[in-house]
Design a protein that fits this description.
13 strands; alpha/beta; single chain; ten-stranded mixed β-sheet
């Protein structure tokens, strides 16, 4: 049997090995041994800045082991034209970043777009998105105006009127902008019932005068008012 001295020496040797192992582990940097060498951006992004995405990913991905995927996802989804991100490690040195871009459904204000979830993003050059309806209002009202635009477009299509956009003021008074430049003033009444009156009146408005209409005012309790673009200063071009 081993004596007390031998057991003491064995214990001391084991303790020394544990200390050396701990020190070696503390000094070991796995990211230095397994760095991220490649960042593959997939998803076929058309608008997102791929170079900026790679730069953000590089800043948050020191190595294959140390990359914090959740923090990196949050940082990437804050980038312009990035709706959602999927991340995965690909052995031994690659980080795959799959980007899903937002789907714009309308212009918003002077330099933003609205996606299909009602979220705003931008700024962007709206000249590149002239085919989308133009919505204007206070932030937070975009979903309301999107739904209203769809309802108004469906209602006025019966009269052959194409809606180009909607504009809502701070007091929730709103205006319909038609594709031919006509403005339809709706006031603060959120009901679309009066649009039926407009649909019925369109043939008479077209027959009344062979001139472009500038404005149709539906804020009257009974009836409507029409202003033609070539109306004289004496108001002779207005009909009610």
């Amino acid at each position: 049997m081993a004596g007390p001295g031998l057991r003491l020496m064995a214990g001391m040797g084991l303790a020394a090995l544990l200390v050396l192992g701990t020190l070696a582990w503390l000094q070991f940097d796995p990211d230095a041994w397994l760095p991220i060498e490649h960042i593959d951006v997939t998803g076929n992004p058309q608008q997102a800045d791929v170079a900026a995405v790679r730069e953000v990913a590089r800043a948050h991905a020191p190595g294959f082991v140390g990359v914090e995927l959740e923090r990196l996802r949050t940082a990437l989804e804050a980038q312009p034209w990035v709706d959602a991100v999927r991340l995965r490690r690909q052995w031994p040195d690659t980080l795959v970043v799959e980007i899903r871009e937002p789907v714009p459904v309308a212009q918003w204000g002077e330099d933003h777009l609205v996606d299909r979830h009602g979220r705003l993003f931008g700024p962007v050059a709206l000249d590149d998105w002239e085919g989308l309806p133009a919505l204007t209002g206070t932030d937070g009202r975009q979903v309301v105006l999107m739904h209203r635009y769809l309802e108004v477009s469906a209602r006025l299509a019966d009269a052959g009127l194409e809606v180009a956009g909607l504009e809502e003021g701070e007091r929730h008074d709103w205006t319909i902008h038609l594709a031919d430049g006509v403005r339809v003033l709706m006031g603060r009444d959120a009901s679309l019932a009066r649009l039926g009156q407009l649909v019925r009146a369109v043939p008479a408005i077209r027959d009344y005068r062979d001139a472009p209409v500038e404005r149709i005012d539906l804020r009257y309790p009974h009836g409507l008012a029409v202003a033609w673009a070539d109306a004289a200063d004496d108001g002779a071009g207005n009909a009610r």
